[in-house]
Amino acid sequence: MSRSHAIAISCGFHLQSTIYNPMTSLPPNRAKTLKEAYRACDVKPLMGDDIARYYVDLSAVRNTVAIDDVSTDLDLQEPGEFNTILFTGHRGCGKSTELKRIQSRWENDYRVIYIEFDQELDVLDAEYTDLYLLFINKVADDLTKLRLKFDPKLLERFESWFKEVTKETEETVQSSVSVETEASAGLEIPFISKLTAKLLGQIKGSSQQKQVIRETLQRNLSRLQTDINLLFKDAFEKLRRKHPDRYEKGFLVIVDNLDRVIPKVANHLFFDYAPQLQELDCTIIYTVPISVIYSYKNVSNLFDSNPNIVPMVNIYEFNRSECDLNYNQQRLEGVASLIEQRVDVDAVFADRQQLLDLAKASGGHVRQLMQTTRSACRTAVTRRHSKVLAEDVTYALNQQQFDFERSTPTPEYYTILARVCLDKDIAKDEIGQALLFNLSVLEYNGSSRWNYVNPLVKQSYAFQQALRSIQGNP
Fold it and tell me: pLDDT digit string (tens) for 389-414?
């Protein structure tokens, strides 16, 4: 992608096709062939019309308090009030789809800016100042899209300071960021958009420049926070004047996929810089890695409200004294309905039991169910089967199991996993965070909170050996 195209997209100046694109949208009807089923089980979050067609309400089988609480917080806010909301759960548990629904639900009361963090910055190395730059870039772009402008004096003051601390000029920014689309779009992209776009590109692409930019901004943090908040206030006022019947509660920034940052980076952001993440005058929803919640530092003490946790769909009959739990048939059927909403099961599966086997192996994890179902369809196509057979399901589950085995660092980890299976709890330490992050351990909650080992990990030989060892030597 050219830089000019990237700038155009960041400002919203791209054409949206209404024609079905198989690369970006699910099939319009339930799949009746293996190839259609493979495409229908895409793991991407539901968006647009796909939400209405394929969304499955799991409230009857999953604790949905976390999702409801976010909307309650947004509802309770008065105009001019701001809040920082933490939204967490395992990667792939369905947070993005729920956030898209929250976006749709509140798009009249708030001007929603939806950010996919991993598309903008590095999940392996992120600082709060990176987020500051990203937020002001997105708000500036959004105003441009609405054909609104910041107050000229306020903007000039901010841009002059930015030029001074970063040693950038109109010429250096113009030479590195092409804006050929300005004329064709009929819009003048402000210098602050171009400058922050350049800085964000340097942060993502150059370790040396990244460090210089961060250190420079941190030395001037108070000024940076003050000026960003003045711009946010000005943007809110411009927004309300143009749309007096909408957006009365200001900007809502949703930072999705921030839960993909590695535990070390997550701990740094949410523990070391919790105050800075709450200093901006707009409402922000941060997606937080669930590993952050498992720490003796207690993230609830650092933020104004408790984190909203989206747990797994509990497909089990919980019994703390039993290692191998029985399945709850109603919840199992609820998980299976995620596939049934997209796929004609009788047309695609040789036997519905194969779908239930996939649901059991998911542990109630939405993306894992989609991945293994998709893999089973692909395997069936490769083997020239007319439908998914039991052997295709077995092969697909084995491949995912092998992936977990490859990502388990040392044999000692299996001893820890076996203990989780017996105790239904995970240690709040670095290893515990790592096992939650890579989905070897899952969280379930409702009337009680507990952990359990991912079913695909449980079936591995190394885990079974560790479990037998512990049971023989408690």
Answer: 999 999 999 999 999 999 888 888 99
- Predicted confidence (pLDDT) per residue in 363-378, tens digit: 999 999 999 999 999 9
Tell me the C-alpha distance between 173 and 51, whole Å: 40
Within 10 Å of residue 59's Cβ, how many Cβ atoms?
12
Residue 316 phi, psi (nearest 5):
-110, 165
Is the pLDDT reported for residue 23 higher than 60?
Answer: no
pLDDT (mean) for 74-81:
92
Segment holding 140, helix H or strand E: helix 128-145
Whether 351 has a pLDDT exceeding 60, the answer reads yes
**Could you tell me if residue 439 is left (phi over 0), alpha (psi between -120 and 50 degrees) or otherwise beta?**
left
φ, ψ of residue 115 to 5 degrees: the values are -120, 130
DSSP per residue, 412-454: HHHHHHHHHHHHS---SSHHHHHHHHTTSEEEEESSSEEEEE-
Single-letter amino acid code for the residue at 340:
E
Give the pairing of strands 308-310 and 84-89.
parallel
- End-to-end distance of the chain based on CA atoms, in angstroms? 58
* Cα–Cα–Cα angle for 138, 144, 145, rounded to 5 degrees: 90
User: Parallel, antiparallel, or unpaired for β 441-445 and 283-288?
Assistant: unpaired
pLDDT in tens, 417-474: 999 999 999 999 999 999 999 999 999 987 889 999 999 999 999 999 999 999 887 6
pLDDT at 119: 92
DSSP for residue 363: T
Residue 318, SS3 per DSSP: coil
The pTM for the full model equals 0.84
Q: Angle of helix 352-362 relative to helix 390-407, nearest 10 degrees?
A: 10
pLDDT of residue 157 exceeding 60, the answer is yes
- Distances in Å between the Cα of 433 and the Cα atoms of 19, 196, 332 are 43, 33, 27
pLDDT at 8: 35
Residues 391 and 351: beta-carbon distance below 8 Å: no
Q: Give the residue from 469, 402, 392, 407 showing the smallest Cα distance to 438.
A: 407
Residues near 457 by beta carbon (within 8 Å), at least 6 away in sequence: 401, 404, 408, 417, 440, 463
3-state secondary structure 229-254: HHHHHHHHHHHHHHCCCCCCCCEEEE
Closest by CA position to 204, among listed 138, 114, 123, 116: 123
